[in-house]
């Protein structure tokens, strides 16, 4: 089901969008910034964004992401991992609170207060970009980053779709704004209706869902997608057991997981980690001593990233059985591509005792 933004956007949200459009006029000149880099682009960008949002699948609201399918023997012992993206989803309560604090501090410090869009940051970015006539500074909230990552790593299947998800255009930026507002408003309303929560509690529940989805979606490099896999890949622990300095390292890596890879750029990763800790000190001054001490610690990653083998090759001597099981499933309506993204558990008849 497509998202009907015309129906879902509240009067307050529509007013803010109008204020955003009005705010980009400075001294009688249309600011050529974040959303609208050419003077005639406002109407065109707005129309294109509205059309694009109308066609977005309800998958975004459901938040389904590709997960690892595990093939086991008859006792439940894993014999093969099958995946397109190496990811294990976890819930909000399975993520260390310091991971939440770290990512909010470095990426979107007003996350728990705004309605999906940081209006102050957006206008500031528009003014900043006006001097270049290009879309450079984004002021994207975690909501907007989640939408971009979801489109890129979940919905996009072709190179053209991947390019569309990352293109630096006013239409995409405005589309993300509209989708972020719609998503947050919809999830808040669902929490209010389904759980009987008041407005404030419903909004906070929606925030928990969004940040959990974000952390389950983003790539952390070395083939690790999502926070649980990243915690295991770099530190050999579940996400709920991350220490604050470990959480800060991972939070810093989402900016560029390749450039900030702790194995190929340890100094860059360390500097970025400490920057995250500095933002946490600013946001949580009562923890200053603890966080200052954390800055003195080494990266503390595993000697090598814990990377899983993918596919039936990981079954080693049981590769033939793995291939046979996949063929059997395909003949019975469960395609290989579905298996590789579905997060299933496939229990075979292999008995290690025989």
Automatic annotation (TrEMBL):
It comes from the Bacteria. Residues 84-280 form the Glycosyl transferase family domain. GO terms for molecular function: peptidoglycan glycosyltransferase activity. GO terms for cellular component: outer membrane-bounded periplasmic space. The gene is pon1. One of its GO terms (biological process) is peptidoglycan biosynthetic process. The chain crosses the membrane at residues 20-45. This is Penicillin-binding protein 1. PANTHER family: BINDING PROTEIN TRANSPEPTIDASE, PUTATIVE-RELATED (PTHR32282), PEPTIDOGLYCAN GLYCOSYLTRANSFERASE (PTHR32282:SF33). Coiled coil: none annotated. Keywords: Membrane, Transferase, Transmembrane, Transmembrane helix.
């Amino acid at each position: 089901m497509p998202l009907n933004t015309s129906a879902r956007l509240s009067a307050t949200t529509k007013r803010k969008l109008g204020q955003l459009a009005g705010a980009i006029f400075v001294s009688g000149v249309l600011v050529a910034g974040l959303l609208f880099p050419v003077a005639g682009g406002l109407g065109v960008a707005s129309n294109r964004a509205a059309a694009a949002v109308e066609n977005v699948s309800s998958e975004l609201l459901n938040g389904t992401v590709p997960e690892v399918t595990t093939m086991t023997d008859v006792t439940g012992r894993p014999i093969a991992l099958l995946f397109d993206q190496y990811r294990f989803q976890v819930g909000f309560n399975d993520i260390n609170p310091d991971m939440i604090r770290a990512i909010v501090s470095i990426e979107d410090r007003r996350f728990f207060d705004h309605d999906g869009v940081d209006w102050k940051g957006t206008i500031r970015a528009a003014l900043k970009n006006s001097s270049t006539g290009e879309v450079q500074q984004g002021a994207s909230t975690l909501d907007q980053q989640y939408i971009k990552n979801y489109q890129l790593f979940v919905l996009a299947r072709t190179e053209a779709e991947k390019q569309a998800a990352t293109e630096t255009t006013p239409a995409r930026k405005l589309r993300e704004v509209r989708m972020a507002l719609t998503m947050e408003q919809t999830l808040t309303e669902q929490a209010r209706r389904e759980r009987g929560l008041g407005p404030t509690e419903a909004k906070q529940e929606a925030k928990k869902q969004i940040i959990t989805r974000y952390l389950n979606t983003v790539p952390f490099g070395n083939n690790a997608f999502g926070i649980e896999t990243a915690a295991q890949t770099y530190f050999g622990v579940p996400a709920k057991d991350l220490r604050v300095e470990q959480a800060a390292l991972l939070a810093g890596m989402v900016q560029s997981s390749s450039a900030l890879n702790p194995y190929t750029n340890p100094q860059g990763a360390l500097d970025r980690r400490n920057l995250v800790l500095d933002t946490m000190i600013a946001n949580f001054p009562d923890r200053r001593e603890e966080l200052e001490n954390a800055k003195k610690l080494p990266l503390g990653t595993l000697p090598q990233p814990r990377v899983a083998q993918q596919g039936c090759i990981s079954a080693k001597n049981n590769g033939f059985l793995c291939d046979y099981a996949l063929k059997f499933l395909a003949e019975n309506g469960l395609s290989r591509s579905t298996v590789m993204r579905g997060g299933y558990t496939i229990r075979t008849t292999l008995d290690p005792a025989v």
